[in-house]
Write a structure and sequence with these properties.
Elements (H helix, E strand, L loop, with lengths): L17 E6 L7 H11 L5 E6 L13 H4 L10 E6 L7 H10 L5 E6 L29 E4 L14 H20 L6 H15 L6 H12 L4 H17 L4 H11 L1
Parallel strand pairs: 1-2, 2-3, 3-4, 4-5
């Protein structure tokens, strides 16, 4: 964890390609200046991962905004940008597209809280906004992690049948896209995706096999921490739908 003030007047590091940092809550007001200094000092930066430190006994900082991260738009070589914050990002469709236009080489983008669920009262990204991450605006994007609104199956209603069918299909597409990003080498990405998939597992029976197979894929990963996540993932899925318990138990026995 590096105090932001230490980057003032930082000597150029033209060979630096990857940088991970953790920020303290009291330093969030200086984020634009910090990112501007970092971009100036590291013009060839390709991978940037920022973690926000959680301190539950202090007032949480405001959400990241487009203005806060805009200095990064000068870093034209950036292919990975991941920001794990204690609150959901507040970005509209135009602002999301601005990120894509400004960073056309971006292959990995994560804009999500570093907690399983957003704080009460915080608005997550709506499912309809996912279309803004398409190839028109993000031509190189391969991996995406964002916080979306909690998915629930539609409730019967005569006046909203058409809307609910479309919404349910939209949910299924979002679930499938979420499943594609795991297993990831980044534990926070896995954790966020697993949380969503467990929550929707019981209501979406037609996708249960896909989700289960993703859990099995994670269990075969070489990274030990990812395998531990997979074991918890499998157990949670069994709790959601007991019909998978027997098969999951066989898989867990083989892993031990």
């Amino acid at each position: 964890m590096v105090p932001l003030r230490l980057f003032n007047g930082l000597e150029p590091l033209p060979r630096l390609r990857e940088f991970h940092c953790m920020l303290c809550p009291e330093e969030f007001s200086g984020i634009p200046e910090f990112l501007e200094e970092l971009t100036r000092a590291c013009p060839n930066l390709q991978h940037l991962v920022i973690y926000a430190r959680v301190q539950v006994f202090f007032t949480e900082p405001e959400s990241f905004t487009l203005q806060a991260i805009s200095p990064l738009f000068a870093c034209h070589s950036l292919i990975e940008l991941q920001i794990f914050h204690t609150r959901a990002f507040k970005l509209n469709s135009e602002q999301i597209r601005t990120i894509g236009h400004s960073l056309p080489l971006l292959e990995t983008l994560a804009l999500c809280p570093n907690v399983l669920f957003p704080e009460a009262g915080q608005t997550a990204m709506h499912l309809s906004q996912l279309t803004n991450f398409g190839p028109t605006w993000f031509p190189s994007l391969k991996r995406l992690a964002v916080c979306v609104e909690t998915l629930h199956p539609p409730t019967p209603s005569r006046s909203k049948d058409v809307f609910q069918v479309e919404a349910f299909c939209e949910q299924e597409n979002a679930i499938q896209e979420c499943a594609k990003i795991i297993p990831s080498q980044y534990l926070e990405v896995n954790r966020s995706a697993i949380s969503l998939l467990v929550n929707v597992f019981k209501e979406h029976e037609e996708l249960q096999a896909t989700i289960i197979n993703k859990a099995y894929d994670m269990a075969e990963e070489g990274q030990l921490e990812v395998r531990y996540q997979a074991i918890d993932f499998i157990v949670d899925l069994s709790r959601q739908s007991p019909k998978w318990t027997s098969r999951n138990a066989d898989v867990l026995i083989q892993l031990l």
